[in-house]
Design goal:
Blueprint: E1 4-11, E2 14-22, E3 25-29, E4 31-34, H1 41-53, E5 57-67, E6 74-82, H2 95-101, E7 106-113, H3 125-137, E8 144-145
Parallel strand pairs: 1-6, 5-8
Antiparallel strand pairs: 1-2, 1-4, 2-3, 2-7, 5-6
Length: 146
């Protein structure tokens, strides 16, 4: 899979998460996906956020780098500012939209109260813990490796 990007988007005390339902069960993760060969992480972030939520990134700051064994490798997690919008949706032209139509490996972007975040079944517990702590203590100015 290579390198991926993920977006932490907070708006009105809510955090944007991707609810996933796969054969392995129901869980949450951040909006994001793989970096293509011709993209920088920032370009991939803008594209992935648009595809998976319809939101437009206005600024982004790298806050965490999460290492994973192959095939997943590194995830670059950005704290993002977006054009404010309550409605979020997978865009029709995406692979996720096609999977949703097949009702297989479904994706649903959802705004979740930030104070409930720590209780959700989140894909990577170390990232969930780092985000939960940063929600109260502030996000790092320099990226932290998890």
């Amino acid at each position: 899979m290579g390198k991926t990007v993920r977006a932490i988007i907070i708006q009105n005390n809510k955090i944007l998460l991707m609810r996933r339902n796969k054969q392995s069960g129901d869980y949450y993760t951040l909006v994001g996906g793989p970096i293509k060969d011709n993209e920088t992480p920032e370009q991939a972030l803008v594209r992935e956020v648009k595809e998976e939520s319809g939101l437009e990134v206005t600024s982004a700051r790298l806050v965490f780098i999460e290492e994973h064994p192959a095939p997943y490798n590194e995830q670059f997690i950005f704290l993002c500012e977006v054009v404010p919008r309550e409605e979020v949706a997978i865009q029709d032209f995406t692979e996720e939209a096609q999977l949703n139509k097949l009702d297989y490996n479904t994706h649903e972007p959802v705004w979740t109260q930030a104070n409930l975040f720590s209780n959700l079944p989140f894909r990577t517990p170390q990232l969930q813990d780092a985000i939960y702590k940063a929600l109260s203590a502030g996000f790092p100015n320099e990226p932290i490796k998890l």
